[in-house]
Amino acid sequence: MITETDALAHLETVLAALKRAGASHADAVYVGGDSASVSVRLGNVEDISRSEDAEIGIRAFAGDRSASVALSDFAPAAIAEAARRAVAMARLATPDEHAGLVPEEMLAKTALPDLQTDDGGTVDLTALEANALQCEDAARAVHGVTNSGGGGASASRGTFALATSHGFAAARTGTSYSVYASVIAGEGENMQRDYASHSARHLADLEDVSEVGSRAGTRTVARLNPVKPKSGVMTVLFDPRVSPGIVGHLIGAINGGAIARGTSFLTEPDAQVFGAGVAILEDPHRARGHRSRAFDGEGIATTRRSIVEDGRLTGWLLNNAAARQLGLATTGHAARGTGGPPGIGPSNLHMAAGTQSREDMIAAIGSGILITELIGQGVSIVTGDYSRGAGGFLIENGEITRPVSGITIAGNLKDMFARLIPASDLEFRHATNAPTLLVEGMTVAGE
Fold first, then answer.
1. How far apart are CA 252 and CA 245, in angstroms?
2. 378-419, pLDDT tens digit by residue?
3. Which residues does the UniProt record annotate as the domain Metalloprotease TldD/E central (predicted)?
4. Which of 220, 243, 272 is the last residue in one of the domains?
5. Nearest C-alpha neighbor of 414 from the set 390, 387, 379, 385
6. 295 and 211, same domain (yes or no)
7. Which long-range contacts (CB under 8 A, 24 or more apart) does 94-97 make?
8. CB-based contact 193:208 (threshold 8 Å)
9. Is the pLDDT reported for residue 1 higher than 80?
């Protein structure tokens, strides 16, 4: 894998070629890295893969027209040809008054913080194999587990660099490590499957792989002999395994692109969406965060901000193009790959913990369902309608009792958000995190 300095040098060469080719302005991104994974099943290695890749994405402008080209050959002649092709394509493109680079005065100028996303480690296939086998072994050792869906471990190290024709140039490197196991309990028609996994930026932060495996086995056995509750309207609790998805639906609805197109069920940037006290925060500078970044895909410095404050939206998530369409300023949420113009995406998100413990919530509601698995994509950001297959556990007389499967839960996101109550069990494990969430009045389709 090349260094950040080398990646930026390649981008400098690209921008110089674009200028010679006649681009009025331009930007370019480098994405590259090394990755490896090992998958196992029943104590045997099934697959070992390793890859190294690097690609540069070019965006060339000819006034208010633009075009994008990607290349993986960094030889000077190949770069020159890609630049000529990008400019020629841009001159033939449809004009777009909203496209363009962010104003120069908005670019990140000060020294960027070290977010500790890179532990400097290298891929070790022997260690990955050992972790994968140990994780699966621990899952299979749980009493009641009868078969394995497999286990695995992976490691990667990658670099992202961005340079623009009006003076921005920066790069960031990150490592990632993960381990998982998926096993089966029971036999015949009474078989159930579940899994557990963990990932971290630094290898030192990865959970003990045997604990991950044991959790996979325990979860799977707990799902044996499920029942179907009677259909009706009831209280639903979303376990932290699935509750981040609720935050994700909000993010999709406040994406500036959806707002500009008029395809979101939310229309007011300062609407009272949740109940009082509910907060959703974004922290792109969290040390070792899964999605930490000091600058966005257009060179804007990122900053910690509230997405929802005391239940009220604080605005939309915007890149430069969406901001221009809406007559606003970009919020530093441009997300960039090597193909096409920037999209929109957040960094590290979390819903703040509430004041009531999960155990107290369960005891107070008496009866309901704890959801630990969601199936399907039945969510409309246009209307807010929500309908998904689900599995989990019954709550009876204030206690978690029998497993349930094959049910459907439905509602509308506006109503769900308004009634949502977060518990106090927030943990930071993913790029988006949320505690257990209680939502009253959801429709459950069972028997």
1. 10
2. 999 999 999 999 999 999 999 999 999 999 999 999 999 999
3. 124-224
4. 220
5. 385
6. no
7. 94/65, 95/63, 95/64, 95/65, 96/64, 96/65, 96/66, 96/321, 97/64, 97/324
8. no
9. no
Give the separation between CA 168 and CA 135, rounded to whole angstroms.
44
* CATH code, 62: 3.30.2290.10
Q: In what order do the strands lie in the sheet with 65-71?
A: 65-71, 44-62, 25-41, 145-164, 169-185, 192-200
- How many CA atoms lie within 13 Å of 366's alpha carbon, on the beta-carbon side? 2
How far apart CA 422 and CA 352 sit, in angstroms, is 8
Alpha carbons 408 and 347: distance in angstroms, whole number = 31
Domain range for 447 is: 226-447
Do residues 209 and 231 both lie within one domain? no
Q: What pLDDT, in 10s, does the model give residues 99-112?
A: 999 999 999 988 89
Is the four-CA dihedral 204, 133, 38, 178 of positive or negative sign? negative
Structure token pair of residue 120:
């400097």
Same domain assignment for residues 195 and 257:
no
Same structural domain, 212 and 348: no
Q: How many structural domains are present in the chain?
A: 2
Strand positions, DSSP E, 339-436: 343-344, 349-351, 368-375, 385-396, 399-412, 421-422, 432-433
Q: Enter the tokens of residue 95.
A: 């004009």
Instruction: Compute, in degrees rounded to 10, the torsion defined by CA atoms 106, 108, 110, 113.
Output: 140
Determine contact, residues 205/194, Cβ cutoff 8 Å. Answer: no
Residue type, 297: G
Residues 157 and 21 in one domain: yes
CB 221 within 8 A of CB 143: yes
What are the tens digits of pLDDT across the range 127-175?
999 999 999 999 999 999 999 999 999 999 999 999 999 999 999 999 9
CA angle 271, 266, 438 (to 5 degrees): 75
Q: Which two tokens stand for residue 363?
A: 């005891």
DSSP state of 94: P
Mean confidence (pLDDT) of the chain: 96
Q: Tokens 């989990």 belong to which residue?
A: 392
**Alpha-carbon separation of residue 14 from 5, 25, 77, 164, 240 (angstroms):** 14, 12, 11, 10, 45
Same domain as 188, residue 243 = no
Other CB atoms within 10 Å distance of the CB of residue 122: 10
Residue 288 in contact with residue 113, Cβ under 8 Å?
A: no
